[in-house]
Amino acid sequence: MTEIMVTANKSNSNNLLRRDVRFLGNILGEVLVHQGGNELLDVVEKIRETSKALRAEYTPELYQEFLSMIKQLDSEKRHQVIRAFAVYFQLVNIAEQNHRIRRKRDYERSAGETVQPGSIEMAVKTLKEKGFEYSDVEEILGSLSLELVMTAHPTEAMRRVILDIHKRISEDVMLLDNPILTLREREQLREKLLNEVITLWQTDELRDRKPTVLDEVRNGMYYFHETLFHVLPDVYEELERCLHKYYPENHWHVPTYLKFGSWIGGDRDGNPSVTSDVTWETLRVQRKLAIREYKRILIELMGVLSFSTNIVNVSEELLASIEEDRKHVVIKKSEIWRNEKEPYRIKLAYMITKLSNILDESTLGQPNRYDSPEELIRDLKVIDCSLRHHYADYVADTYIKKTIRQVELFGFHTATLDIRQHSQEHENAMIEILAHMNIVEDYSALSEEEKINLLAGLLNDPRPLTSSHFKYSENTHECLEVYRTIYRAQKEFGKNCINSYLISMTRGASDLLEVMVLAKEVGLYRVEPDGTVVCSIQSVPLFETIDDLHAAPQIMKRLFDLPVYRRSVQARNDVQEIMLGYSDSNKDGGVVTANWELLVAMNDITAMSKDYGVKLKFFHGRGGALGRGGMTLNRSILAQPSHTIGGGIKITEQGEVISSRYSLKGIAYRSLEQATSALLTSATAARTEKVDEKEAGWKEIIREISEVSLEKYQDLIFRDKDFFNFFKESTPLPEIGELNIGSRPSKRKNSDRFEDLRAIPWVFAWTQSRYLFPAWYAAGTGLQSFYQGKEENLKVLQDMYNNYPFFSTLIDTVQMAVAKADMNISKQYTYMVKDEEVRNRIVGLIKEEYKLTKDLLLKVTGQQEILDNVPVIQESIRLRNPYVDPLSYLQVQLLAELRELREQDGDDAELLREVLLTINGIAAGLRNTG
Fold first, then answer.
1. How far apart are the C-alpha atoms of 190 and 146, rounded to whole Å?
2. Which segments of 528-683 are extended strands (E)?
3. What pLDDT, in 10s, does the model give residues 344-381?
4. What φ, ψ does residue 146 adopt, rounded to 5°?
5. Cα Rg for the chain, rounded, in angstroms?
6. Is 557 a catalytic residue?
7. Is-catalytic flag, 46?
């Protein structure tokens, strides 16, 4: 297991990656011998070598030998072989992540005055070079807004304990770069890593139960504790450093433009486990984390701020604040700082106690606690000013400035929690509430326009619709309780703890108005006697399907035409948030049509909203996989038309993307630095962008390509009666539901309809079978409809690829999917389809489309091979495939055995366990799930 899976680049930096992979591979080899003897290592090596040989030159004889080798493994040996390949991928992934950090450090060390592309400094330097003045930059910074929203979408296949082991291995491997390590220290480091790999080998990768929602909340908070509390302020500090460098005559304090939110504990769409009580407890968990972090920071500051009044004169303001604290705050005797000559330590002791008292709800409103983050910031600023008073400004800049930034970013709630629910749930509640009040017998029977008029009238009417004397159904009671929880939370945790209420499957303006009417019932929305609207929560539509995207501009126009709704947007600084679903639109219409319709919807809604003076904040519901809009964070920002970012951007961070981006501080910093650079670049482009005169023609071409692609896609997915059964039988879809990776069910309803299947298992299953079908299917037919073998049409497509960012991003996304897909491996999965005629027919359609898509990608890009434009990824896929292949062959064999057993009403827990291990292993090998 020592094959070096790195690029062919011969630089010293890549030699270090080879060293790390070889080093970890050798350690894994020792562990295999230690745990299973030389026989286990020999079997693993034989399978690996044969798999490599098959990739190098396929022959029927070698293929049969390979299959025979796999099938002859007994259950125990097979289990160990699966784990050997899976653990190897985990170690390679750790080495590659470390190498990303190393590359950045190498660049910074060797570049001298050269500025790294994609860095914050490059973005600020570009602003200066383009002639932007201080006032221009200040205006740009004031307009920037990026919120990254963590979700608990079930695509993180790894347990938290495994991630902890990975972190320890990563930190130890990094130490190998230390040139002053002695020989004995290197030996000790190797011994430590050997222990960690043995621990990894003997730790169960699989969860024995589904995580609860609060388990998921705590897992999400792990990344705030481990990296984000430390890294996010550093990104702000770097931006301010660069601004001072290029605009030295000005003082800079960058406004809050980059922050994190969360859906975990707030997303109840299709997840009955997310109750109002769970949402409340989620907010308590988030607050506890924030308070714990601030206490830790202040305790560290007590060790630093040892300034004595025997030597310096502190500010009168500091001394007065200490006296004020003495009147109201009682400190435990063991925590009192008794040296009266060290006022900073005395002040910090009071501050720590006031933070502790926040968690005691009986102290609410009393002066012995902080009731808001602003109060804590005021105390920190008192310390900051006093330090500068006696010329300890370096200390103030190093410690206090960062702490103030942390409180500005994380408050007492850590992350803003979004609430999400399906539109049908609100309608069901309205039916019952309005019937109780004898307002309308059957609300659902009203036309859309009748609903809108009724709801608008109710919003203007100050009288309540609900009463404690009425007995509502359990669902309606819980629906109302969510709003009461939001109201109570904003009082307890601050207005910023919850701002947005997202409505899944928004189909009309009434869906948003229903949420506003329910919010009015608890005081989240009200109209003052003078007509002023007070609104502390916003209805956010989620447009998911192709039809929804078509309807979106008209739905929003109808809302903005309503004075009562328009005033609610005015109360939210004239910003309307709108969420776009990349997963369901792709599942509904295929990759080409989904991307095109998302672009059209954004452009049309943006143009319409300008007529009403409304700024839009688009919330992009991207997943980690290519079939769900997945791409790097900076590319996902740059992929948006620059004129659509005026009101800000929100982007989901889901599943395995969270752990890959935010487990390590170095990678988290680089990702957020690139995001900031991309945000500045887009904001600059919005002010200087010139539209290519050919763009209107290009858009018409893509529209036509999209129409043909949609027809091709839906012909197979929706109109072929055998397709869904083919999908279920030829992928591990049924078994993925047993992986225990999320609290949420894989279907919105307990049904076998394709429409009720969530997009995540749809993509996850296709990824496992190596088809990656949702990320490329029907793209070739769409392109062919314009190309038609005509050279002049090909030149137009090539011009679009080189000069139209939307088209080039789409083509590159599709070719990434085509590169990762493998028709030879996926063929093995199709043998599980029972109906041979169905199998041959659908496989034929897919293979034909794959070949067409691949051929046209090469023509449009002018490349010899797929991914010639990114050789590093091309080589990584080439080198990883032979290691993933054995897991795929084993998965097919295991699935066939398990399904045959279950058809006979039997079951085998160990067999299922092996299937689930292959799912984890393939996910690690492809670095992607759903």
1. 42
2. 533-535, 538-543, 575-581, 615-621, 649-654
3. 999 999 999 999 999 987 787 788 999 999 999 999 99
4. -135, 120
5. 29
6. no
7. no
